[in-house]
Amino acid sequence: MEPIRIVVVDDHKLFREGLSALLNAAAATTVVGEAATGADAIAQAEAAAPDIILMDIQMPDINGIEATRRILADHPQTGVIMLTMLEDDDSLFAAMRAGARGYILKGADKAEVLRTVTAVAEGQALFGPAIARRLSSFFQRGNSRETAINPFPDLTDREREVLILIAQGLNNSDIANRLYISSKTVSNHISNIFNKLQVADRAQAIVRAREYGIG
Known about the structure:
Elements: E1 4-9, H1 13-25, E2 29-35, H2 38-48, E3 52-55, H3 64-74, E4 79-84, H4 89-98, E5 102-105, H5 110-121, E6 126-127, H6 129-140, H7 146-149, H8 157-167, H9 172-179, H10 183-197, H11 202-211
Parallel strand pairs: 1-2, 1-3, 3-4, 4-5, 5-6
């Protein structure tokens, strides 16, 4: 069998190179690319056509969750595994919504990493033992806040920031100043928000946001 082709994405060079060395040393896997940012990850997904992407969540430009959404929109056959220090419920559910098929912590051992990579490459979804326990605990509680964690999963992180500021009553100029972006960019984000929330105007967007306690 051909080895599983992997792109490793992490903004910490030593960790990224160490993980790549581990994967290259295994007979079943080979690293075909590395990336330090979300934008680079998107480019590597296009250029290297990997089977698997090991994706960090927290990165300087486009975070791993948004990069995952963009990659899977064009390459739905790619298996994305979130590899992160974060194990909070918000990050976990956001990763699942984005289409990640695996989520393991950076403290996982070699066997767990390889087991997850192999399973996802075979079309399975696999979350490490620590994450599986969190999911089990979440659903055993009968917790109904799953939708409250991220009530508008189609919005990008930036669009969500803009919606929060709209709901707080800020105008376009104030939002632009707060986020250090141009008024035109704010207008573009607001147009996207209206389309994704299927609302006609700012007032309706505020109502939708406040239904979920935003703003």
